[in-house]
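Appendix B: a complete holo record

For completeness, this appendix reproduces one full record from the ligand-bound portion of the collection. The bound molecule is flavin-adenine dinucleotide. The inputs are the chain sequence and the ligand SMILES; the output is the full three-dimensional arrangement of the complex, encoded as structure tokens. No fields have been trimmed.
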Amino acid sequence: MFSTVDVAVVGAGLSGLVSAYRLHRAGAEVVVLEAKDRVGGRLLTSSTRAGVAVDCGGSWVGSRHKAVLALLGEFEIDLVPQFTDGLNLLRVRGRIHRYRGDVPRLRLHEMLDLARAQWLLDRMATRLGSPPWSGGFAAKLDERSLGAWMRRHVRTTAALLVLKMVTAASFGCRPEELSLLAFAAHVHGCGGLADLVGVHDGALANRIAGGAGTLPTHLARRLGDRVRLDHPIVEIHRSPDRVTLISRTHQPVHARRVIVAVDPATADSIAHHPPLPVERAELQRRWQMGTGIKAHVIYQRPWWRDHGLTGATVTDTGFVRLTFDVSPAGAGAGVLTTFLGPAIADDPELLQPDSAPRRRRRVLDDLAELLGPDAQHAEDYIEQDWTDEPWQSGCVPRVPTGVLHTGYPWLTRPVGPVHWAGAESSHIGEAHMDGAVRAGQRAADEVLATLATVARA
Ligand SMILES: Cc1cc2nc3c(=O)[nH]c(=O)nc-3n(C[C@H](O)[C@H](O)[C@H](O)COP(=O)(O)OP(=O)(O)OC[C@H]3O[C@@H](n4cnc5c(N)ncnc54)[C@H](O)[C@@H]3O)c2cc1C
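The structure of the chain with flavin-adenine dinucleotide bound, as generated:
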């Protein structure tokens, strides 16, 4: 069954499943080949001992994320608004600033410095145009890192901290490791810096009821046995009108078109015959993904809310550097999440796989110092290390200088019958679930157009 199909999709992450679902609904014969024993890729919802769903991968959906919102609407999946009724904490040089809303209340000169940096970065993103990689301005931005730009334009410790945390949370890296063009293009695709980090109407406005993993599960259910798990693709052989996909464990799959729905760094582990054009090969070879651990601490109830706190914190010292309240809707468990990564942790030793017990201890100690002694009374602790996850190169892209300006067009340019999806290939909502959906739909439409052309010829 399925040994020759219209379209094979490599990867059952959100993007690949969306592609396959669109193709299937358009009447194409499709098969999805997934390396792991589960669907969802970077969307992974786990359950605590008490049955509370926590998102170990992607989680938040913003109000501008129209493509993913439409899909959630189609499947009648609800959103949970991010809890905001209280004070956020920002700790800089031992001083704690409490504030409501998205803009930290700092000293006047620090607020002005931060506002100026935001204005300059937003203006840069707006000037990029569409697509954001074209033109001399993009080439100029790609010559230096965000860190180099910050050293020149940002003066206060507080503003530097906020930008460092935005980079760690959104790209899993230090500002020095990220191309200024990559940062500006991401801000461009999010509709502004405030939107990228905002809870009120921004990218962090909502979570998916029951966990983000419900979305790929719904899609996979509709595709039924067209989704094949434990089916890693290691080689793609192509001719002008046909591909053969090779795995070490199964018979070859023949298709008229293939959509590779993985990020460029992960795609680099698939060998192509004949080899890919040098520009696409170079893009894959140089692309990087930021890594880190997403941890959840589960309490009987969200006790920090009793102290008037939202559970959202950012701090310039410690192992835990930022937290969010991701408690389920209604009365019940309280859940705090944090991102632990080499870009921000003060004790990188604790990120080693064999440091898990010491890491958990340190997370609780840091939370107690930030939010109060009740933090020590955790009922459960769940973490996911994306550095170690098979068939993934990391969490979110952290593209260094000199890659995007020339490589960006090759994120989407088909190579004969080989098409590309994956969140990283969308220039709107790139690296978010929204980008994954848009890229999946775009790749499916491309393929449908080529299949129609072939059928007419
Ligand atoms: C910790 C973390 C936090 C995040 N937070 C958010 C957030 O709050 N909001 C948001 O919108 N986004 C967030 N994201 C990003 C979001 O999860 C991703 O953009 C999106 O899920 C990517 O989907 P995808 O289908 O493009 O790729 P993936 O999910 O990476 O799917 C690719 C699939 O391909 C499979 N695969 C790889 N190689 C092969 C092969 N050779 N053969 C067969 N199969 C293969 C993989 O196993 C995987 O299942 C986060 C991600 C992480 C990791």
